[in-house]
Design goal:
single chain, mainly alpha, 72% helix, 0% strand, 64 residues, 3 helices, flat
Protein backbone atom coordinates (compact mmCIF):
# COMPACT_ATOMS: atom_id res chain seq x y z
CA UNK A 1 0.00 0.00 0.00
CA UNK A 2 1.32 3.41 -0.95
CA UNK A 3 1.21 6.05 1.75
CA UNK A 4 1.65 9.73 0.92
CA UNK A 5 2.09 12.04 3.91
CA UNK A 6 0.23 15.30 3.28
CA UNK A 7 1.35 18.35 5.21
CA UNK A 8 -1.10 20.83 6.66
CA UNK A 9 -2.17 23.30 3.99
CA UNK A 10 -0.48 21.39 1.15
CA UNK A 11 -2.17 21.55 -2.21
CA UNK A 12 -4.15 18.40 -3.07
CA UNK A 13 -2.85 18.50 -6.65
CA UNK A 14 0.71 18.23 -5.38
CA UNK A 15 -0.21 15.25 -3.19
CA UNK A 16 -1.89 13.55 -6.16
CA UNK A 17 1.20 14.16 -8.27
CA UNK A 18 3.36 12.51 -5.58
CA UNK A 19 0.97 9.56 -5.46
CA UNK A 20 1.04 9.10 -9.23
CA UNK A 21 4.83 9.29 -9.29
CA UNK A 22 5.21 6.68 -6.52
CA UNK A 23 2.62 4.44 -8.14
CA UNK A 24 4.42 4.62 -11.48
CA UNK A 25 7.78 3.80 -9.88
CA UNK A 26 6.39 0.62 -8.33
CA UNK A 27 5.58 -0.73 -11.80
CA UNK A 28 2.15 -2.03 -10.86
CA UNK A 29 0.43 -0.80 -14.01
CA UNK A 30 3.19 -2.12 -16.26
CA UNK A 31 3.02 -5.55 -14.63
CA UNK A 32 -0.78 -5.58 -14.84
CA UNK A 33 -0.71 -4.85 -18.57
CA UNK A 34 1.96 -7.50 -19.07
CA UNK A 35 -0.19 -10.12 -17.30
CA UNK A 36 -3.24 -9.39 -19.46
CA UNK A 37 -1.73 -11.17 -22.43
CA UNK A 38 0.44 -14.24 -22.83
CA UNK A 39 3.83 -13.77 -24.45
CA UNK A 40 5.74 -16.81 -25.58
CA UNK A 41 9.15 -17.25 -23.94
CA UNK A 42 10.82 -17.23 -27.36
CA UNK A 43 9.26 -13.81 -28.08
CA UNK A 44 10.47 -12.47 -24.73
CA UNK A 45 13.99 -13.72 -25.45
CA UNK A 46 13.91 -12.21 -28.95
CA UNK A 47 12.88 -8.83 -27.52
CA UNK A 48 15.71 -8.91 -24.98
CA UNK A 49 18.24 -9.70 -27.71
CA UNK A 50 16.91 -6.95 -29.98
CA UNK A 51 17.12 -4.42 -27.16
CA UNK A 52 20.70 -5.45 -26.39
CA UNK A 53 21.67 -5.10 -30.06
CA UNK A 54 20.07 -1.65 -30.20
CA UNK A 55 21.88 -0.46 -27.07
CA UNK A 56 25.19 -1.84 -28.33
CA UNK A 57 24.69 -0.02 -31.64
CA UNK A 58 24.04 3.27 -29.83
CA UNK A 59 27.16 2.81 -27.68
CA UNK A 60 29.29 2.05 -30.74
CA UNK A 61 28.06 5.17 -32.51
CA UNK A 62 28.75 7.25 -29.42
CA UNK A 63 32.34 6.01 -29.10
CA UNK A 64 33.45 6.59 -32.59
Amino acid sequence: MIIIPVKEGENIDRALKKLKRKFEKTGVVKELRERQKFTKPSKKHRDVVQKAVYIQKLQDEQQG
